[in-house]
Amino acid sequence: MEFIDLKAQYQQVEDKIKVRIDQVLSHGKYIMGPEVQELEEKLADYVGVKHCISCANGTDALQLALMAMGIGPGDVVIVPPFTFFATAEAVKLVGAEPLFVDVDPETFNMCPLALERSILESEAEVKDRLKAVIVVDLFGAPADYTKISMIANEYGLAVIEDGAQGMGGSIEDKKSCSFGDISTTSFFPAKPLGCYGDGGALFTNDQEYAEQLRSLRVHGKGVDKYDNVRIGMNSRLDTIQAAILLEKLSIFDSELKSRNLVAQRYLNGLKLKEVRLPAIPSGFCSSWAQFTLTCENRMPLLDALKTADIPVGIYYPSSINKSKLFEIQSACPVSESLASRVMSLPMHPYLTTEDQDAVIQVLNEL
Ligand SMILES: *Cc1c(COP(=O)(O)O)cnc(C)c1O
Question: For residue 188, which atom of ligand 1 is closest to its CA?
Fold first, then answer.
């Protein structure tokens, strides 16, 4: 049994992907070839925003978003501590400092109450430097953007949506990666929409941000890459990866349906009293990047699954606010406690009901 089965997915699109890759090899435009623009148009359309700007990976996407907003040394950016390291790392990469705001124990996403409390209670010296908040759609479910955007607005903070795991999720009829002033995603192979290497993208409705991002990803180019008008990065999506993503995007909605069926089967089948199952707020849709349980003592569950040769993941084993690499200290008790209680079960669109029932049975027998 695979935790995430990329081979099963490849079998669905193998012929089409080979044709697409062959086309790239024939035209030879390996950097910024026609497939890149085709993908950007289709993704912008899919997400429902005006501009999609692809780039080299999800970490660069966050860094580019911060750069486009002019965030740098001296600035403070709010981030959740229960996420992949890159969310906070990007803030440091532009020379700013993260301020960690705790997450909600039910959704794992940034808690709006904690956000406002943290803004109000931070020392004047920190408060004056606050510029933006990076909100993560952890495990595929969007954060509570209605409340978070209202608070951000009130305190003059820009919103960056880290949708690395969120692609395909939604709130009512609004898709993930459309909730930030700038939103980002990652096409790392294991993400809900992944390519066969590294890749990423940014989304925005703001024309000015879009123009800056297109410049920033190619060495701060002006009219061309030898006319440099700002310090940028070398962060482009390979044409071959765009070609692969075009075919993966064509089956993405049907994969999302399968992911939801898998999630529902877990939700209906798992009966352990001491386990809390993931809760998606009403009106929200998750892309089910992960199916994550919480349990006071996860050791017996991990042991039983290991004995049965069933793969599990722990996302994330530590709360980033505990790292010594960041200057501003803050207590995040929910995140710190989650780090010792979470575990994620195999989750992908091609998980068979037999395999899934095996997981459910091992756990229910405890
Ligand atoms: C994967 C991930 C990233 C980084 O994406 P890369 O493409 O690996 O650089 C950033 N934030 C979150 C929440 C992620 O899950």
Answer: 7
